[in-house]
Amino acid sequence: MRIFRSIRARLSEPCVLTIGNFDGVHLGHKALLRQLRRVASRTGLPATVLCFEPHPREFFAPESAPPRLCSMWRKMALLQEAGVDQVCMQRFDAAFAGLDADAFVRQVLVDGLQVRHLIVGDDFRFGRARSGDFLALKQAGERHGFTVEAMGTLEADGERVSSSAVREALQAGRIEHATHLLGEPFVVEGWVEHGDKIGRTIGFPTANIRMRQPTLPLSGIFAVSVDGGPLRHAAGAASIGYRPTIGAGLALRVEVFVLDFEGDLYGEKLSVRFWHKLRDEAKFESLDALKTAIGKDCDDVRAWFSGHPAYLSLREQNG
Length: 319
Prior knowledge:
Layout: E1 2-4, E2 15-19, H1 27-43, E3 47-53, H2 56-60, H3 72-81, E4 86-91, H4 94-97, H5 101-112, E5 115-121, H6 134-144, E6 147-151, E7 155-156, E8 159-160, H7 163-171, H8 175-182, E9 186-193, H9 198-201, E10 207-211, E11 220-228, E12 231-241, E13 253-258, E14 269-279, H10 287-306, H11 309-318
Parallel strand pairs: 1-4, 2-3, 2-5, 3-4, 5-6
Antiparallel strand pairs: 7-8, 9-10, 9-14, 10-13, 11-12, 11-14, 12-13
Helix pairs in contact: 5-6, 7-8
């Protein structure tokens, strides 16, 4: 998959295109990308995605922007898995935000990306102050020689599938529901780095994950599976939070204790899949009390996974 860091003066060939932020690449995104892939195969043109960095909400209101569901690089990997041929990662800045609807069509769609067919959500808006809508795109396509298609909203059990719905489920601790909307468990990726090694002193050495994103849409203690380095679908207990038992004002940290594993994971890139929330983060009166709680968490992880054949089947299929 080719990745372009901005809209060039002109790509090497025309394309079929969709536009969006694709945060999380949930089931609704995947349905849209399947349609993009079908049109690309029929026309022989590259399946192309235009997305923005930073997210427009992060540009306009950084203090209130929601946490991302995935890092930029995980998003790229998911788009590649979906069969996308090329991604244009356009920087969203004041100049780009200032393009009116006509300028967006001319500079971005026609001159920059040479669009032949465009697929967007039925609520898509574009241009300065979100002044352009689907009807405006259809009319622009008639003038400039490209066709436009709207994808209706995907629903799962009567609920609109969206990044906001996934985020709300994660924030509420409804991890299984978020999995249902995403089509797979929520994932955090990062490299294992040295920490304060307190877990080691109480018998639970944890892998401290250096995240690719500054915030996460969930917190607490979770049943997870871990891949990376020597691990393949290894069961673990993960903590996302601020470690109130250790001190006050600490930075957000993702820590994972891998069950039944003895070894060194420093420097390994791990993928942590979140299956179930066990409890909220809590402040304990002593390290001994924390040790007891972690022991119970590990027992709860074993019990939860033993009762969920989907995870056990995944382990059996992959050895």
